[in-house]
## 1
Amino acid sequence: MAARIPDSLDRLSHDDLIGVVRDLIHGVTRLGAENEKLGGALGKLRIEHQAIKDELARLKHLPPRPPIKRSGMDKATDAKGPEGGGEKGGGSTQGRGGQLDKLTIGATVVVTAKAPTGSRHKGYKDIVVQDLSLKPTVTRYRRERRETPDGRMILGELDRGIVGGYGPHLHRLVLALHFSGQVTCERIVALLNGMGVAISKRQVVRLLTAKLETFRAEDEAVLKAGLSGADVTVDDTGARHAGKSGYKLAPNLEQAQILRARFDRIFKRARTGYARLDSLLKRLHRHKDELLRVLERPEIPLGANASENDIRAFVTKRKISGGTVSEKGRDARDVMLGLAKTCMTLELSFYDFIGDRLATPGPKIPHLANLVRHDHA
């Protein structure tokens, strides 16, 4: 039996204090082992309990439990602290995946540490900072005038990217904000005026419809390339075949005839004994050609999900800024939203695409129609 510990530890000798601490460590260790054992038993009980619930759901013909992935918030919580990059103001680049690999470092700045005398240099801790500078620039172009011997006046040609007193970079920003960012003309005017650009709503609308023929020609070429390409046939119903979801096979002639015969046998029967059902079967049989067209064109999707997704940008723009007023505005909307959707499908930057077509410095984007043909090849 352990000796009784006095009320005050001050009365204990040094050896007695060591004994008390050893007893406490032993007790904490024992409690930790018991807690771990109880935790394991509880985990097993939870698994057995969930198995019983799943079996009951199966017997009652209930839908199975959906798979639930572990939240990424746990990892973020565990990474707090100086070694995890969670210190205030550190701005660590950890946890960004491969995003930094896509960046090009334009400048390197060495920040010296304010350390006391005698401190040793231990290398550097790098942090990549991205920033964006938007400031207006005003340039005066002095176009030389020359008079030819026959009396004609010749002016120096401006850069082809200048439209109505505005340069290609501003033109590019307006197009990206309106068609990709779904920003209204009024808000674009307010944003640019606040940045020091003298521009009106009328001039913004003019920029939105400028150089439309160039974009329209490319949009029409993309449409032709898409229609002539070999489409990937996707089953929107999510049916599975050969262990894969979403793919259909074109039936051969014999299989198509069998399916047509089955259709006639089901929908062409004389009487079922129910007047409403007989009427419905006759109505469906009248649309036999439309319903079985998929046998001739297996690329036709069984649902409208893809089409609805393609026009979602038009619906969003209509909700934000209403409909267009002029024919030119309607053409600009249709052409630019179509090109933006094509760039998204091809995993291209719509901003880079606009910049290349407006002859601004930056990445070169090939003709979209050629990319569509290559993607379908």
Note: The first helix runs from residue 14 to 59.
## 2
Amino acid sequence: MNSFLKTGRSFVSHFYCSRTRSFRSPLRPKTIESSDTSDSSLKPSSVTEPTSPKKSLDLSADVLRDEWQQIIFHHTATPRTSKFNVEWCRSLHVDQRGWSDIGYHLYIEHDGSISKGRPLNRIGAHCSSKNYEAIGIAVCGGMLADGSYGITLTEEQKEAMKECVAELRRCTGKQLPVSGHRDHKSTLCPLFEVKDIFDE
């Protein structure tokens, strides 16, 4: 995930569910990273239409790439408030960074509801070395009221994370391993330990 040091400002198709490789990175976090870049050759002609957040995630109607092999979690490095929702993030990535769409496939809102981001049949833009094989999920939060970075994760958000993983595993038919952005990059994103939530 991209850690956002500045504040700024799904898609339904025919049913398709496809078919893990275990992955463990030795990298440990060092600094908060500003961004990853997307592959310009993957840009579509238009941004996906926004969808309303949902408490229950159903991806049965979504098209998923066969190449998905893992799931990577991020935080937004913002306060955990409704202001920093999926559309704020989409605007940040599209309007300010010039990307084709939001970089994440799923987005866990401040209250634990789940929003769809970039369609799951498209490569994301959230972890440059793993975009081709990794589904990216952002969790709103990571910044405390005083502007410092800290863990703001709620039980509702944790449950949403588990729901996202369970649904993605069901739909792909793969036991997709989970990790944090910091397991693949020199970054503090996310500040929480993903493995502690999933106990894997």
Note: Helices lie at 86-96, 155-172, 194-198.
## 3
Amino acid sequence: MKRRDGFALISSYAAIGDGRTVALIAADGSIDFLSLPSLDAPTTFAAMLDPERGGRFTLAPAGDFEVSRRYAGRTNVLETTYRTGAGVVRVTEALTLQDGGLLPWVELARRIDGMEGSVPLEWRLEPRFDWGREPPRIVRRGERFVAEGAGLQLGIHAWDAGEVEPEDDALRGSFEIAAGERAMLALVAAYEQPLHAPSRDHVEARLDATRRVWERWLGMWAYDGPWEEEVARSALALKLLVYAPNGSIAAAPTISAAPAPARAVISPAFRTPRGRCRPAVRGFFASIQRSTSSTPCMREWSWFPISYFQEPKRPREKMPRGSR
């Protein structure tokens, strides 16, 4: 996957969520957008808007790789497969749930499975709190390092995923995984409350249970019309925007889109076989494109972020009196 000036194509992003917030993950393993602890909070990761100062959480093989990704069945659990010259690994990730409901904290689990060969990987946590305006304070709490700022605490737990190495404003690690081996990274966030330290067994169990929760939720529908898989995926995408604490629906997982038509690439996965936007996607991008009722799905549109590419408004010229 190639970036331009640090920006990824919007078509490279996949979304995961827990009914409280949504993370956008680029195909190169970088979480480039996440507001914590909720959708309406300031960002902790916003490299999607500012690659240098926005913050991100990366996990990827060291060196060159090819990537393919999918959601695990009819769920919002993401599976990404990285193929390198040395082997193949699969990353399974989700914002976890417990017993079908929200945890008291936000937990992002990233499971790494060695599939073939032996692959070296690197990860790096670079939080930038309050829309990138507040750098983190890296402190040590017992045996763990914590990033603090803007009332938030972030703990990173690495099981068989390398030692956590602190830097001035980041935490990082590296490791190598062979076929048949498994590693786990868990990011835990708490806002103005004590930071939970989960066990690996509990994180693994919640990740597996989160998949079952999504399957159970979609299993209650009875749709048997055309484009069944496309409609199912649209329903899952819209479900990510439902704020579970009060049932309200967010317009988007990111900041508001520009009111004027913007330029963005939409993945073919969002299109129906006839090239039209799926119904859910048409509504989702209604604020980006003024009319989608009779046009293909924003064909040939290019780069994100949306709100940074609108033309500046020109001041209205005052007309002299008597000129009308």
Note: The chain has four helices and 17 strands.
